[in-house]
Amino acid sequence: xxxxxxxxxxxxxxxxxxxxxxxxxxxxxxxxxxxxxYSSEATEADVRDCRLSSVPRILxxxxxxxxxxxxEDLEILAEESRRLEEASxxxxxxxxxxxxxxxxxxxTAFGPEGCLILSILAKIEPRVYVFNIDTGYQFPETLKLRDxxxxxxxxxxxxxxxxxxxxxxxxxxxxxxxKTNPDQCCRDRKIxxxxxxxxxxxxxxxxxxxxxxxxxxxxxIVGWDQKFGLVKINPLARWxxxxxxxxxxxxxxxxxxxxxxGYASIGCWPCTRxxxxxxxxxxxxxxxxxxxxxxxxxxxxxxxxxxxxxxxEEDRQQ
Length: 318
Ligand code: SF4
Known about the structure:
alpha/beta; Rossmann fold; six-stranded mixed sheet; two-stranded antiparallel ribbon; about 10% strand; disordered C terminus; binds iron/sulfur cluster
């Protein structure tokens, strides 16, 4: 007969007692966590939990609780990434949910990749917390797509906004900063929002593809996001734009109608234009500027702190 106690002994050298702990997820959701300490009357659930205890910490929902990952943690992630290289998007998302939910999140700007991922996530784990960075400069079509996604998949994407409204922000800076300093604008209205939202999460899902831009050619399937300090999962890293659109058409996944008007990559309306035949898909972002990324997915050599808080403080005092 199968001996659970023996199996437990393989995985744990700890004293055999069992403890149950309550916990709260990053969004206040309550969940229960079992510490891997077992009684001599271990159940199958004990064994499963015990197996979890043998998983390297970087691959657990508590990954973020430690300090910076050690080289061996990064090697583990690299190995997982290599292992998942041939996996389908479904398998990668399943892996992400198994390892990191409920401390797993996703950011989406409702691009075709994001909508495709949401269509899969809805089948695997629709409770994953998904957010959109609502800069205040999004196209109305993008916000409408949020409603369509909610209706079709039951996933209500949360709108996360910067500290200041567009009106306040432009007043503080004497006009729209996207015209004079788009890097700063992106830092304040996108990056600062992500920094705030991902607190307490162990991993996030992104819709990056390797063929999108030179900055993205080497993205792993799974890796450590040095910028935000959590694991980053790119289930569509290997996909081409064509493959994404084939799936969207096949499964009638909702998408932004602006794509039919020549917009290949859609961000904030002041910094996005349609592209011409043969142009790079991100050529329409920040037209006329030496900028192709908002900074969410690149590590800058120098991180310039935003001057906004001090401006705002002065403004309040006036
Ligand atoms: S994309 Fe443009 S408007 Fe949007 S945050 Fe960046 S600079 Fe500002």
